[in-house]
Amino acid sequence: MTTPSFAQLHVPGRPFLLVNAWDVLSSLTLARAGHPAIGTTSLGITAAAGLPDGSRAGREHTVALVRALTGRLPAHLSVDLEDGYDDDPRAVADLVAALARLGAVGVNLEDGARSARAHAAVIAAVKGNNPDMFVNARTDIFWSGSHDLTEALNRLRAYRDAGADGLFIPGLADRASLEQVVALGAPVNALWNPGSGQANSGIARLSTGSALYRHALASALRAADAAAAGQVPAEPAVSYLETQELLTAANQGPQAAI
Known about the structure:
Elements: E1 16-21, H1 24-32, E2 37-40, H2 42-48, H3 59-69, E3 76-80, H4 89-101, E4 106-110, H5 116-129, E5 134-138, H6 149-161, E6 166-168, H7 175-182, E7 188-191, E8 205-207, H8 211-228, H9 240-250
Parallel strand pairs: 1-2, 1-8, 2-3, 3-4, 4-5, 5-6, 6-7, 7-8
């Protein structure tokens, strides 16, 4: 059976889960668990480096992670690039081309403080220079506090017309609103929100975003509390041997690619 490409994983109405990792070991561990695609999380990568998210501080750390995963990750890789770390569409397109050479097959690009026109120009440049790259276009209308669905839809329509392969409004979880995004005609990504019913809205992808990184921090705190109280942590840890075996295997040569 032919393994589906990253684009083929996006089936409207049958969303796959894109798990988001923040370093080499979290990426390899999630891939070994059977996830066909790994996304990076900009918050996880920048926070692990002691830097704030969304401030263009994570470029070198993101590129370093993609480089470190080259030939070692048996899964598709999609990279969260914040806003592309630059306002020059050509510079963003060049960055995406460099990531493609390292093996990335998808990128997530957010508009942040940009106008719709400016972000559409970035997407058009990226797709023009990297036609095979799956570009997930994100609008931060809801993230910024302005819950204007009409404006969000207008922005996503412009990004779709500029060549975006997927559409994303983080913070939007109700089924009726997501169905309006789905009606734009491109695969829709939603941020994982347990119990919201979003999976039944016709979307094609669910992303965990920074949730796994933040859950890992919460788990570490619970384990530390248990240790301080002389108790056994409720959640068993991944064994030292397992991490060593995984990293050793990854360093022995190219992994079987999906």
